[in-house]
């Protein structure tokens, strides 16, 4: 779920703005648990606030889990009780309602119609909130063919992203082998993910994985060909009537992809930790 623009109409004191900024920074890098922690800390210190409740709800909704969705709805409803026309809360709640299963949660799904009507009254054409409403309602009204095309586009985007990451990791590994320093990634998420990948793929035991990632497209084609060939050979020779043993040859490629996924997770965790450390230092210096 994309981050929504939120407005603070409940005062401009530094403490409240600081908590909102912290939530925004953490949400941007996927630190949803930390966003919830920051939002709750702000609510505990400053009292009920619709913007912080919106951040709390979004951080729950981003987990895409039924229990978290219930917590998100509770946060949105509490925020709307304080500011019934807050566009950030209304759009966030609308998105949650429209993505809910109408059979499992009929009440939540039904509330989407009322929220949409209210937003059409409040959000002026051309505004960021109206664009978000149009995007959300357009997504909710898609058919199966639209879902298929969207899934295909997302899969293609993931493949392209993985191929790009493989090239970046290969270049970074070559620079590391020459003794060139990649520099401190700091709070740059992509740089932190790249640094983590280089760290995880160092050493002789990962030589095969580095080779596979350096020639990712060819490695995939060769792996699939070998897997199918081995299965066909085992069946044709009469050794087996049906074989999936050949797919064991795909384990090295799967291990290489797992390393990249772990690097992305590790890089995100490190960036979140650095942001939180900066926040804690700011608190200590205040």
Give average pLDDT, whole number: 86
What does the main sheet amount to? none
Q: What overall form do the CA principal axes indicate?
A: globular
- Please compute the radius of gyration using only Cα atoms: 24 Å
Decide which structural class fits the backbone.
Answer: mainly alpha
- Work out the helicity level: over 70%
The number of helical segments is: 12
**Number of domain modules:** 2
Strand content: under 5%
- List low-confidence stretches: 1-12
Element-level helix/strand string: HHHHHHHHHHHH
Kindly report how far apart the N and C termini lie.
Answer: 33 Å
Please provide the count of β strands: 0
Short overview:
With 286 residues, the chain is an all-alpha fold. It has twelve helices and no strands. It has two domains: 14-140, Serine Threonine Protein Phosphatase 5, Tetratricopeptide repeat (Alpha Horseshoe); 146-285, no CATH class.
Overall description:
The chain has 286 residues and is mostly helical. It has two domains: 14-140, Serine Threonine Protein Phosphatase 5, Tetratricopeptide repeat (Alpha Horseshoe), CATH 1.25.40; 146-285, no CATH class. Helices cover 74% and strands 0% of the residues. It contains twelve helices and no strands. It has helices at 14-28, 32-46, 50-61, 66-82, 87-99, 106-122, 128-140, 144-177, 189-200, 207-214, 216-236, 251-285. Helix 1 (14-28) packs antiparallel against helix 2 and helix 10 (207-214) crosses helix 11. The relative contact order is 0.08. The model is unreliable at 1-12 (pLDDT under 50).
